[in-house]
């Protein structure tokens, strides 16, 4: 290959004037982690509501939650981000829309919102599977000792359901991290965007992408390791996990 | 609320959106599903083989690609492919690769990691007596795979493969990042040319939704039918 | 026809076969019995190389299994095998199940293969089901198809691995009838089974296994008349009380 490798480029100053290229990648990794963490918290909250709602009897909760899941699962994440970023401000009353557009760090908030709501539908599906995998007697036993339905979910069903879906949740969290890269399309300077910028400024394509690849792999390994630790910490003897 | 909007832009650009954009997206989806399933099946066979080297190589391939965001992989191949072609053909400078070929190779290689996990589960779901019975008839490894194991594994996994294809269909929208003319790329081009972002992105969302929703519904029906046959 | 010579096998530390030695001559019907976990199924699967073994050797029609130059698929194509769970190929119709090995392994053309398949289906009394899928047949019917599938390959010997133990009781006899007929025609057979009635009717020899060892290897009359070992006596008294 007629490519001039130059790994020293990583330590050279980037023309943005904020430090070396390696430092800009590090900044990108921080944004990646920040957005992933924010989106994940939102996804867990939304997913919990959806998972419980889809497991409830009655004519309202379950179909509404199903509709949410269908809508968010059947539109590409990239298009969803465009809807939040370009379309939503136009549909709001004019003054609100202006306020939204002038928000500092709008890409950051949009990415957290968009990725969080998108991943929420997937977490909700996992949680529903977890709840359904529990013996039906658990709910009956919980109500039989006098717990209300919300109490039964809070103290009996959810603690078990979350434990058995921990392995699939780990991979959903890893998906959340990977999905943050989609937000480069709305101008979020996360890791992939930083690598792309480095490639454009320095023309050292492969050094830039190799560095980003290595950082993603390390992040993956770290998260997988941390989740294993959590799994073993919260494990309860006799309560298995749900296979993907 | 929509008084400022001009939905006529959709009607005017519809032929372009469908003939160029949607055709690109659907062809890319179909071909990379086929390529991904074939490559993925080979990788699954490698992981389930009795050769340590193949097992490790297969697992490495899958785990490596599954750790990376698709956007990054798209960039990788977009820039790497001309150099690979130059190396393969021995040309004097990097060889430019067509937009479609570049996307097809990227998605085939990337999605093969996911399809291989599906096919691996499919192959493992076949009772061990089946390969034994094939061997007892005198079939060799490839005959047993081709006539006995893979047809059953593929059929058992068809709903999962199709579900992954729907995900792949949505994932193809990411070629936007290297400005390829897929459906979203085409919609976005019109949106920016005419300054009609709201109309075009809403329209794009609706089209993706209808196709994905309808396809998921078909898969669900197929799944129910397969469940009855078993 | 089959010579099993001092064969031993381990699963990790577990010794499933211990120094097994026996033989089956042409035209002989040998029944292998013993309590579950005695290694009898493992033994019969070593004969066509479906199970590996670490020590000893097995020769089938003069071909040594341990010999590196032995073409296992070719050897297996001459040894018919019937499995406990039938193992018909569920995605193929009955006739396709019967033709596949003939065409792909023996290289017969479709017409020849179909002729053979039809003849053998008739023989097991299932010609009416030729175009069904295995899942549409009862267990007994499936096992008869499996026997026909093995016979399609013109085997020089037939191995049966508990061919009736996965069947509902009312279906056992239809399968045994086919096997008895086969034995009377002079087919060389090695049969792992608990069906002592079958053994009494057609076996020349009975092998009794326990904990991986061949404890008894005797003619039918000797085995049922005066079993030498205590373990065989216990086994027979348990199995024959009903």
TrEMBL record, chain A:
One of its GO terms (biological process) is amino acid transport. GO terms for cellular component: ATP-binding cassette (ABC) transporter complex. One of its GO terms (molecular function) is transmembrane transporter activity. The keyword Transmembrane helix applies. Keywords: Cell membrane, Membrane, Transmembrane, Transmembrane helix, Transport. It is found in: Cell inner membrane; Cell membrane. Residues 29-227 form the ABC transmembrane type-1 domain. It comes from the Bacteria. It is a multi-pass membrane protein. The chain crosses the membrane at residues 31-53, 65-86, 106-125, 205-230. Belongs to the binding-protein-dependent transport system permease family. HisMQ subfamily. This is L-glutamate ABC transporter membrane protein /L-aspartate ABC transporter membrane protein. It comes from Enterovirga rhinocerotis.
Automatic annotation (TrEMBL), chain B:
It holds the Pfam family BPD_transp_1. Signal peptide: none annotated. SUPFAM superfamilies: MetI-like. One of its GO terms (biological process) is amino acid transport. The keyword Membrane applies. It is a multi-pass membrane protein. It comes from the Bacteria. Belongs to the binding-protein-dependent transport system permease family. HisMQ subfamily. The lineage of its organism: Bacteria, Pseudomonadati, Pseudomonadota, Alphaproteobacteria, Hyphomicrobiales. The chain crosses the membrane at residues 22-46, 67-85, 97-115, 157-180, 200-219. Coiled coil: none annotated. Keywords: Amino-acid transport, Cell membrane, Membrane, Transmembrane, Transmembrane helix, Transport. This is Glutamate/aspartate import permease protein GltK. One of its GO terms (cellular component) is ATP-binding cassette (ABC) transporter complex. It is found in: Cell inner membrane; Cell membrane. The complex is composed of two ATP-binding proteins (GltL), two transmembrane proteins (GltJ and GltK) and a solute-binding protein (GltI). Residues 22-219 form the ABC transmembrane type-1 domain. Part of the ABC transporter complex GltIJKL involved in glutamate and aspartate uptake. Probably responsible for the translocation of the substrate across the membrane. InterPro entries: AA_ABC_transptr_permease_3TM, ArtM/GltK/GlnP/TcyL/YhdX-like, MetI-like, MetI-like_sf. GO terms for molecular function: transmembrane transporter activity.
TrEMBL record, chain C:
GO terms for cellular component: plasma membrane. InterPro entries: AAA+_ATPase, ABC_ATPase_HisP-typ, ABC_transporter-like_ATP-bd, ABC_transporter-like_CS, MetN_ABC_transporter-like, P-loop_NTPase. Its main location: membrane. It is a peripheral membrane protein. It is found in: Cell membrane. CDD domains: ABC_HisP_GlnQ. Residues 2-236 form the ABC transporter domain. It comes from the Bacteria. The keyword Protein transport does not apply. Keywords: Amino-acid transport, ATP-binding, Cell membrane, Membrane, Nucleotide-binding, Transport. PANTHER family: AMINO ACID IMPORT ATP-BINDING PROTEIN, GLUTAMATE_ASPARTATE IMPORT ATP-BINDING PROTEIN GLTL. Belongs to the ABC transporter superfamily. This is L-glutamate ABC transporter ATP-binding protein /L-aspartate ABC transporter ATP-binding protein. It comes from Enterovirga rhinocerotis.
